[in-house]
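Worked Example 4.2. Consider the chain below.
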Amino acid sequence: MTSLAVDTAANDRAIVHVIDDDESPREALGLLFPSVGLDVRTYPSVQQFLDAGLHGGPGCIVLDVRLPGMNGLEFQSRRDRFGVHLPIVLMTGHGDVPMSVRAMKAGAVDFLPKPFREQDMIDAVTAAIERDRERRTAENKLAELRDRYAALSPREKHVMKLVTDGKMNKQVAFELGLSEITVKTYRGAVMQKMDARTFADLVRMAGTLRLGNPSQGCRA
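Applying the procedure from the previous section yields the following structure tokens:
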């Protein structure tokens, strides 16, 4: 298996969760992923995977379609209810085109028919782990952005909402009953606290936060 390649540094601490009731492919994948530097956990059913409680960390799921109890496609469609957000690579020995289309539309990274080439599985898992990394990075950035916004005073939030809606400083001043100089001061403070390098950055942040109407009668 030395010809198989994966960027282990980019997948640091990621776990590949293999769910398959068939012992032979489950064991084979349990040996394959460590050979390319990936941690792996194997389970014969979705319920045992959920009971293990390890799905909060980085990684992905390699999921067989036909499983006892909840099958792979059912779990894929219901995983959000279980708090599972890991990307899924589906595999099956009984696949067909409609099934694969359904799986891909539901967000599967790949759909591999058994038997599959080892390199195809490695490539699919690598793509899934990268998708998970990107999701976590985006979630962390959003959390940081929300923290910065939460640190603004009510007046600063109001000014940010109005200026990113496209209102000029004098319009904001009139609406809030402030001087234009005071609005400029608030605007500068907002830029600094939000770590916005340009006004365009601030507008993008407001769009990401989907700012609603700030409370009325706010004070500095």
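Residues 1-11, 215-220 have pLDDT under 50 and may be disordered. The two ends are 64 Å apart (CA to CA). Compare this with Example 4.1 before moving on.
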